[in-house]
Amino acid sequence: MADTASDIFAALAHPTRRQILQDLKDGELAAGEIAAKFSASGPTISRHLGVLRQAGLVSERRDANRILYSLVADNLALSVGDFLSTVCPEQIVLREVRKKRAPKAASASEATA
């Protein structure tokens, strides 16, 4: 079985793939719409999409003759978060501090409403 974190970081290594992920953050796009944003050939973009799909960063679904891609943000967030927690334990502490602040911020906004 492949190492998921390694697959994700390998997928993130190429700027075109990072741009594809950014383009998908606002919602689903057809393969042709994604390819149209780049000067690379369709087959090259298709290979990039395949790497992202293999890493679990995008999902695809068919709609008639179109292939639609969407971001799987949870996989990216969990893998990068786990890695950062391992190499930078301060991230765990910062995450806990943010969790504690979030309810206070929500309470303050409710009080002013």
Automatic annotation (TrEMBL):
<keyword id="KW-0805">Transcription regulation</keyword>
<dbReference type="InterPro" id="IPR001845">
    <property type="entry name" value="HTH_ArsR_DNA-bd_dom"/>
</dbReference>
<dbReference type="InterPro" id="IPR011991">
    <property type="entry name" value="ArsR-like_HTH"/>
</dbReference>
<protein>
    <submittedName>
        <fullName>Winged helix-turn-helix transcriptional regulator</fullName>
    </submittedName>
</protein>
<dbReference type="GO" id="GO:0003677">
    <property type="term" value="F:DNA binding"/>
</dbReference>
<dbReference type="Pfam" id="PF12840">
    <property type="entry name" value="HTH_20"/>
</dbReference>
<feature type="domain" description="HTH arsR-type">
    <location>
        <begin position="1"/>
        <end position="91"/>
    </location>
</feature>
<keyword id="KW-0804">Transcription</keyword>
<dbReference type="InterPro" id="IPR036388">
    <property type="entry name" value="WH-like_DNA-bd_sf"/>
</dbReference>
<dbReference type="InterPro" id="IPR036390">
    <property type="entry name" value="WH_DNA-bd_sf"/>
</dbReference>
<dbReference type="InterPro" id="IPR051081">
    <property type="entry name" value="HTH_MetalResp_TranReg"/>
</dbReference>
<dbReference type="GO" id="GO:0003700">
    <property type="term" value="F:DNA-binding transcription factor activity"/>
</dbReference>
<keyword id="KW-0238">DNA-binding</keyword>
